[in-house]
Design brief:
The complex is a heterodimer.
Chain A lengths: L1 H15 L3 H34 L5 H12 L3 H12 L14 H25 L4 H8 L4 H11 L1 H16 L3 H7 L9 H10 L3 H30 L1
Helix pairs in contact in A: 1-11, 2-5, 2-8, 3-5, 4-5, 4-9, 5-8, 5-9, 6-7, 8-11, 10-11
Chain B lengths: L2 E12 L2 E12 L3 E5 L6 H8 L7 E6 L2 E3 L5 H4 L2 E4 L10 H11 L5 H10 L15 H13 L5 E5 L7 H18 L2 E6 L2 H7 L2 E6 L2 E7 H6 L4 H7 L6
Parallel strand pairs in B: 3-8, 3-9, 6-7, 7-8
Antiparallel strand pairs in B: 1-2, 1-4, 4-5, 9-10
Chain lengths: 231, 239
């Protein structure tokens, strides 16, 4: 217990010491997860919306695939991406293994099903009479689709934040494909693992606090957006 | 008066079931036509066909003299709108809800929206979130949203069912006034024969998808030609 308390106070000191190495780790975490999230949103929101609005026969199968994807263990994703990007793998020629690009690819695979699946659920949750109503008011097909998406916006925001929470806190995939290389691919989660293993508990706790703070800020931002949209 | 709708041999099937089967019906521009009848008589289906939200299985609907088959031009669809029994409002404030149809048409929303809010008695609630209003207020928002686009045809699908007498009276007066001032054709579906009597120029009875009788309001109630109409007017079960 003493170790935890001491570690906590040392962590606070470390956070305010403006240590460049610490801020480099934070910066890389945010840029990798932010880029992965942006890519997942750009692909996942339209896919989720299309699935939510369509009545194609294959929707049930695709939905099952998406829901399975939502529960993918990050370490399995990491293994898959590792094999794809390793020198003997089909995409080895890209030379992305142990670079932030590989970490982004792995996080996109984790975040995409979350964004698409939760967006689909949000769109399906919109009152089905709304489409008839806006069509009756003279909406074109695009205007009708946009109206449904606008009504589903609370759920879409929740999907984006859930995906961000999922990727910023995962360790298995980025550890495997990034390699936790100091100054190159070390992010918050992999640094916590390393510091814990080497007994640097203060640093590990400091990074843990920062990770929690990021998750907290993301959730507060979501709640603000939801409040504004739902009022 | 010219005919705004000319319906011939209109049929609508859902699977094997025929829910609407009307041989002939002409609806005049500027009139208020009430359609009465029990649930499942095909009244709401007819409204959806008249708003071109669904397509007929057989027969034709001519709108302003032009038979509409399949893809109805957006300009035609935008002359017609429906207020449904349950108001489906957008998650937005009252003003934005009322302005919605104008926005779809790229029209200026300023003066007309405020004037319409004033007409339906909701000016003081313009900034309130629509989904937090009472049932009667929500239905008035839905009516204002329909009227502000100044439609040629206003379709009302039991718009006052479940509302208190104050809101019923208010909505009836707004509809009557709009019809009088703008010449809007109004087709009202209602279970309430008294409402039909108060509002309509003509009343039609529908049973099992068929139009049994259509008459001027006074003739419909005082001298019905079909015994089923007479029974319905007396409040007896005709189905």
């Amino acid at each position: 217990m003493d170790e935890l308390v001491t570690g906590f106070f040392q962590a606070i000191q470390l956070i305010f010491s403006l240590d460049p190495a610490l801020y480099e780790i934070i910066s890389l975490s945010l840029s990798v997860s932010g880029t992965a999230l942006a890519i997942s949103v750009v692909i996942g929101v339209p896919v989720g919306a299309a699935l939510g609005l369509s009545r194609v026969r294959a929707r049930g199968f695709i939905t099952a695939l998406l829901y399975t994807g939502m529960g993918l263990p990050p370490v399995v994703v990491g293994l898959f991406v590792y094999l794809m990007l390793s020198r003997s793998g089909p995409f080895g020629v890209l030379g992305w293994l142990f670079t932030p690009s590989a970490m982004i690819v792995a996080q996109v695979i984790i975040a995409f099903p979350l964004v698409a699946g939760l967006t689909m659920t949000a769109v399906q949750g919109v009152d089905s009479s709304l489409r008839l109503q806006v069509r009756s008011l003279g909406a074109t097909r695009w205007q009708e689709t946009w109206a449904v998406l606008r009504e589903a916006r609370l759920g879409v925001v929740a999907a984006i934040v859930a995906a961000f929470g999922g990727i910023v806190s995962e360790v298995g995939a980025v550890m495997l494909v990034g390699g936790n290389i100091d100054g190159k691919t070390r992010v918050l989660t992999t640094a916590i693992v390393l510091n814990t293993r080497t007994g640097e508990f203060a640093a590990a706790i400091a990074l843990g606090i920062i990770l929690l703070a990021l998750a907290f800020i993301a959730n507060v931002a979501m709640l603000q957006l939801q409040r504004r949209a739902g009022d | 008066m010219s005919a705004v709708y000319q319906i011939e041999h209109l049929k609508k099937n859902y699977g094997d079931r025929t829910v609407l089967d009307i041989d002939e019906l002409q609806i005049q521009a500027g009139e208020i036509l009430a359609l009465v009848g029990p649930s499942g008589a095909g009244k709401s289906t007819l409204l959806r066909l008249l708003n071109f939200l669904e397509t007929a299985t057989q027969g034709t609907i001519a709108y302003s003299g032009v038979a509409q088959n399949g893809n109805v031009p957006i300009a035609t669809r935008r002359q017609i709108t429906t207020v449904f029994q349950r108001p489906v409002l957008l998650r937005a404030n009252v003003r934005d809800n009322v302005a919605y149809g104008l926005g779809l048409r790229g029209m200026n929303v300023d003066g007309s929206v405020d004037a319409m809010l004033d007409r339906v008695g909701l000016k003081s609630l313009a900034r309130a979130m629509a989904h937090k209003l009472s049932g009667g207020e929500m239905q008035r928002v839905a009516l204002a949203r329909a009227l502000v686009i100044d439609p040629q045809v206003l379709l009302l699908d039991e718009p006052t069912a479940n509302l208190d007498p104050y809101n019923v009276g208010l909505i009836e007066e707004i509809v009557r006034r709009h019809n009088r001032e703008r010449g809007t054709t109004v087709i009202l579906v209602t279970h309430n024969v008294f409402q039909a009597k108060r509002l309509a120029h003509r009343v039609g009875l529908m049973l099992s998808g068929k139009l049994i009788e259509i008459q001027n309001t006074s003739a419909f109630f005082d001298f019905p030609s079909d015994p089923r109409t007479a029974a319905f007017v007396r409040g007896e079960m005709v189905y």
